[in-house]
Amino acid sequence: MSLDGSCLRSSPPPGWESGMNRESVLSVANIFNPAGASVANSLIADEYLKDARTTEEIRDAFTEMIGDMLMALPMVTVAGYLSGNLTKGDEKLCRTMMACWSNFAQTSSPNGPRLFSWPQNDRHKQEYMELGLMQTLKQNLKKERVHFATVVLPQQLEQSAAAANTGN
Fold first, then answer.
1. Which member of 1, 4, 6, 118 lies 3.0 to 4.6 Å from 13 by CB, making a disulfide possible if both were Cys?
2. What proportion of the chain, given as a percentage, has pLDDT over 70?
3. Rounded CA gap, 118 and 136, in Å?
């Protein structure tokens, strides 16, 4: 897997449906972890890939690994810092979010009785829910960063590769 910006796009990299191998898992892990962390990346990959036998199983284990590294583990860590220091509003937000996640796991929708109405995804409206003590419907989450990751970065990488190929 080359560093062509495909890991930053909203769609999976080419060949994703066919699965992954250990080397492609490590190449992506090395993007997210700082330089010099290759030993840590190998240990993390070993943990998540230990039961994976096929390229599809490796891909699925990689998906879990990235989800844990980028979302689940940081959230658990923050929750540990917050325990015992929550306001009534924080506790209400926690209960609301647990209800949303539970509904989503059961029905594929976070909506439910006594919860805010979370809109269905519409790529043209680009709506998202800002979560806090008050939930707010907004549009175009990180619009400038998305443009950078999906348009500017691939162009810059292509230009850089072209310059390297011409020796400039």
1. 6
2. 86
3. 10
At 13-25, the pLDDT tens digits run 667 788 999 988 8
Q: At 128, which helix (H) or strand (E)?
A: strand 127-130
- Does the predicted TM-score (pTM) go above 0.70? no
- Structural domain range at position 44: 1-85
How many angstroms separate the CA atoms of 68 and 135, rounded?
A: 25
CB 118 within 8 A of CB 101: no
Alpha carbon distance 18, 62 (integer Å): 13
Considering the domain boundaries, does residue 11 fall inside one?
Answer: yes
Question: DSSP state, 71?
Answer: I
Domains contained in the chain, number: 1
Q: Is residue 19 domain-resident?
A: yes
pLDDT digits (tens, 9 = 90+) for 57-115: 999 998 888 888 887 778 777 777 767 777 888 888 888 888 888 888 888 888 888 88
Domain contains 53: yes
